[in-house]
Amino acid sequence: MSFESTPYKDKKVISIGIVSELTGLSFRQIRYYEERKLIFPERNEKGTRRYSFSDIEKLVEIANKREEGVQTHEIRKEMKQERTKSVEKNVLKDMLRGQFNAHFRNNNNNSM
């Protein structure tokens, strides 16, 4: 996916300092959630972590769940299940779109 086609919420352009200010999380907490594979920042050419607005939203959700006592491995499991559901939903949408396109293409060809 090229940078230009990436939705603004998913562009990895925000420094860890800004993320910390916006979320109220310490640098250490943010890095810990990365170590636990809950978030996946990119690194620029100097090795500096870069986050997206989507990452910030995810970090707030993680922090809220942690305050409720949910363990990081449970959060990771939930996130994996959500990704799986999302992928399945997208596959179903694509299948339906293909069926609709095929149906209407055949109907348009038959009416000529």
Automatic annotation (TrEMBL):
<dbReference type="InterPro" id="IPR000551">
    <property type="entry name" value="MerR-type_HTH_dom"/>
</dbReference>
<protein>
    <submittedName>
        <fullName>MerR family transcriptional regulator</fullName>
    </submittedName>
</protein>
<keyword id="KW-0238">DNA-binding</keyword>
<feature type="domain" description="HTH merR-type">
    <location>
        <begin position="13"/>
        <end position="81"/>
    </location>
</feature>
<dbReference type="InterPro" id="IPR009061">
    <property type="entry name" value="DNA-bd_dom_put_sf"/>
</dbReference>
<keyword id="KW-0804">Transcription</keyword>
<dbReference type="InterPro" id="IPR047057">
    <property type="entry name" value="MerR_fam"/>
</dbReference>
<keyword id="KW-0678">Repressor</keyword>
<dbReference type="Pfam" id="PF13411">
    <property type="entry name" value="MerR_1"/>
</dbReference>
<keyword id="KW-0805">Transcription regulation</keyword>
